[in-house]
Amino acid sequence: MKLLLTGSTGYIGRRLLPDLVQAGHSVVCPVRDMRRFDFEDFDDQFLKSIEVIECDFLDKESLTRLPKDIDAAYYLIHSLTSNSKEFSQLEAITANNFKAYVSESNAQQIIYLGGIANDTKLSDHLSSRQNVENILKETDVPLTVLRSAIIIGSGGASFEIIRDIVEKLPIMIAPKWLNSKCQPIGIYNVIEYLVGVLGNQKASNQIFDIGGKDILTYKQMLLQFGEVRGLKRYILTVPVLTIRLSSLWLYLVTSTSYRLARNLVDSMKNEVIAKDGSIDEVVSIKKLSYKESLERTFKKINQKQIVSSWKDSIASPNFNNAFLQQVEVPKHGCFKDTQSYAFERNPKDVIENIWAIGGERGWYYGNFLWKIRGFLDKLVGGVGLRRGRRSPNDLKGGDALDFWRVLYANKKESHLLLFAEMKLPGDAWLEFKIKSSGKEHSLIQTATFRPLGVWGRLYWFLVLPLHGPIFRNMAKNIIAYKA
To answer: Residue 446 pairs with which residues in a beta bridge?
Structure first.
C-alpha cells in the first residue's frame, strides 16, 4: 500500500515509520523542514520505500505538493506544546486542511490517534482532540479513530515527567489530581494498534479506546515507577492547589514547559479509561502492564535506543516553526567569544566529546554555574536545563539539548551549531568546529550573541566576566576529556 504518514518526525510517527516500511508499504512523509528528517538513520534500501515532501498543514497551498494516489493516511498531528489559547485553533486549521487534501485523494482509510474522551466535561486539550475527530469525520473517506490513554515510552512526555518527579523527589506534596484514574498504555502497544487497524475492514468507520492492562491513579503510577527504579517514595495529596498552581509546580519540578504542564494538568481532571474494549476483537495483541511498559522503556534507554522525544518539539516562539532558518549565524551587530585551541589527540575523540555535551555529561566546566543559569531561566518562564537530551551520545537537527536547540549536527564535517531557547534579551548561538590540516587539528568554539536593544547590550557586558573563564575552560576540557 502507498501511505501518507503525517508527523513522521514526531514522537509517534518516527517510531511507526520503520514498522510500516518493514510491513512492505511505501510511505509518503510530509515534513515542515526537510532538514529535520533523519535520512542518515536509514539505509539505502529503506529510503527507497519512502518519499519525503516538504509542506505544512497550516499552509493549504503547500499541500498541492502531496500525491493523490495514496491508499491510506495517518493523522498524527497535534499542537499540545502550543499556547493553550492557540492550540485548539491550530489543530482545527491543520485538520481542515488535511480534510481538504485527503478528500481529493484516492485514500480509502484515515487513521487518527486521539485521546480518550469519555467524560462529559472535557479539558481544553481533550476537547480539541475530539473536535479534530469530528472534522475528520466530515470526509467521505472511512475513518478509524484510536483514542489513547497516557502513552508510556522512552522520550514520551508523560514518561519523562513521571521520571523527573519520582527520581528527584523522595517526598511529594502533590495536588489532588493525582487521585484521578487512567489506563496507561506502552508505546509498543500503541504502534501495534496503529499497524493492526491499517486496511482492516473491521476498523472501517470505527472508534476504539485503547489502553494498557492496568487501571491506576496517577499516584499509583508514581509509586510503581519508584518500585521499578528501586526507589521508596512518599506522596501526600492536598486539595488546595488550583490548575494554575499545579501547573507551576509541575513546571518547576520537571523538564516540561509551562504550556505543556498547563495542558496536561487540565486534562488530568478527566478520567482516562478505555470503557470500550471492542478493539480486542479487531486487533489481537498482548497488552503490557504498566510495570512491563516501564521495564521495556528502561531497556531501550539503557541500550541508548531513544529514537524520538517530545522535547524535540519546537518550544521557542522565536523559531516560528522555521527554527532551522537560524542556521546562518549573523555576522554583523553581534558580540562574539571565540576560543581556538590546537590539539594532537585523535579528532574523532574530540568530536565524540562535543556530541556528548550537556545532559548528564554536563558542559565540561562550571556545571554549577550552568545549573544556576538554568534555574534562573525556569523562574522567568524559560525551559531551564531539565530537558536534558534525547540520547547521551547522538545529536541531530531539531534535538533539544538542555536550554539549547540543535540547529545543525554533522559529524563528517565536525560541525555542531546550537541556538539558545533560554530567556534572553536577544538571540544566542554556540558553535563547535574542528579544522584539520594534515596532522594538525584545532577546535574552534564560537559563542555569538545578537543583542536586542539596550538591555541586550547591558546583559552581554554583565555576564562577560563569567563567559571568559567558562568558555575558555569548556573548550580546553572538551579537548582533554577522556570518558
So the answer is: 338, 431
Strand 185-186 relative to strand 400-401, pairing: unpaired
d(CA 259, CA 266): 11
Beta-carbon contacts of 328 under 8 Å, excluding residues fewer than 6 positions away, are none
Q: In Å, what is the CA distance from 433 to each residue of 382, 430, 440?
A: 28, 10, 14
Phi, psi of 125 (to 5 degrees): -65, -50
What pLDDT is recorded for position 67? Answer: 95
Cβ-based burial of 180 (10 A; exposed 0-12, middle 13-18, buried ≥19):
middle
The answer to whether 49 touches 21, Cβ cutoff 8 Å, is yes
pLDDT tens-digit readout, 43-80: 888 889 999 999 999 899 999 999 999 999 999 987 65
pLDDT greater than 80 at residue 164: no
Task: Name the one residue in this structure whose C-alpha cell is 493523522.
Answer: 75
Among the ranges 19-28, 114-123, 130-139, 172-181, which has the highest mean pLDDT value? 19-28
Q: What pTM value is reported for the model?
A: 0.70
pLDDT greater than 80 at residue 118: no
